Input
Amino acid sequence: MSMTQVAELALNTDIFLQLAGSRDNAAVVTQLYRSVVGNNPPANDLNTFVGLLTSGMSQADLLVFAANSETNAQKIVLVGLAQTGIEFA
Output
């Protein structure tokens, strides 16, 4: 299964709908931005990302882009996880 297929599954869950409030492009962009950056997108960022979706980028591809972003890697301390791993109980 590709990352895009996994992203499609995640976007279609009830929990994502609850978090985003809708599956329209603006709601999806706002939720992804909140998840990665920690706050709502400023109008220019919202318009840029909604524009990408309107121009043909899929919501799943945008989720993959967000997941692979440097901002997200820093937020989840990816470098630290790569060095120390995740402890399992």
